[in-house]
Amino acid sequence: MSDITSSFAERTRASLRETLLDAATALLAEHGHAGLRMADVAAVAGVSRQTVYNEFGNKTALVEAVALRTTAEFLEGIRHRFDTAPDLLTGVHRAVVYTIEHGRENKLVAAALGTQTGEDLLPLLTTKGEPVLSAATELAATRYLEFLPQLGEPTARLLAETVTRLALSHLVLPTHPAAEAADMVCAALAPHLSTMECEK
């Protein structure tokens, strides 16, 4: 197979995968995990049910792929907030606000948090949310060290995981506006960063 043919095949498969993930995401938001059927995903995507199974293997793998893609979208937004921030605390504040606001606007996350049919998706953010927590913690810790190398990796990871857990808890149980929740998270983090700033 030539490079051109191979490249076209890869793009075609990537496009198919995105189409299937789009269909599954919409159906999950509407019907929840229990109501998701591979045949429905195939129908919405305009392909055969076997095509869905060929691409993902089973429903569990499909749902995990949806969760990973949604997480990747969140992480890209968080990365951008850090990249455009003048300092670490501003980056944290912007990232927390983005996480909460984008989470409330995202159809899949909103369904998990606010609808009866979507309640069975909630574990992806809580009891089965370890992949989300790990990925967000890794990204945040890297950014923390870029702003304050003297933190050291263990401290950066500890602070990043704490902030990530706090942001997720404000998303899951929204008792404050996003900016106010971010203020609270930053107020908890600021004393630790001030100590490190003094050690520069």
Automatic annotation (TrEMBL):
Domain HTH tetR-type stretches = 14-74
Question: DNA-binding: is it a keyword of this entry?
Answer: yes
User: Which Pfam families does the protein's record reference?
Assistant: TetR_C_35 (PF18556), TetR_N (PF00440)
- According to the lineage, what is the superkingdom? Bacteria
Q: Which InterPro entries match?
A: AlkX_C (IPR040611), Homeodomain-like_sf (IPR009057), HTH-type_TetR-like_transc_reg (IPR050109), HTH_TetR (IPR001647)
Residues annotated as DNA-binding are: 37-56
SUPFAM superfamilies (alphabetical) = Homeodomain-like
The keyword Iron is annotated on this UniProt entry: no
Q: Which UniProt keywords apply?
A: DNA-binding
State any single GO MF term.
Answer: transcription cis-regulatory region binding
The molecule here is called: TetR family transcriptional regulator
Where does this protein come from, organism-wise?
Amycolatopsis bartoniae
